[in-house]
């Protein structure tokens, strides 16, 4: 299944480089949970991050974030690519 997760607020002082490093940590961790983080987007103005992930369920996606860097998404939505 595809999911879009939303991080509504970046940690204080976090930069796009920090988000890139967190994504790399996800990629190193994902295989243990049958998950594939496909892409991410950063909205610097709003301080939000969006991650597109293929996972068996939302909790598996959360586990990867939790283990990789501890920054679990605030929201996660099942999506269908158009």
Automatic annotation (TrEMBL):
Name of the molecule in the record: DUF4242 domain-containing protein
Lineage, highest ranks first: Bacteria, Bacillati, Actinomycetota, Actinomycetes, Pseudonocardiales
Native species: Lentzea flava
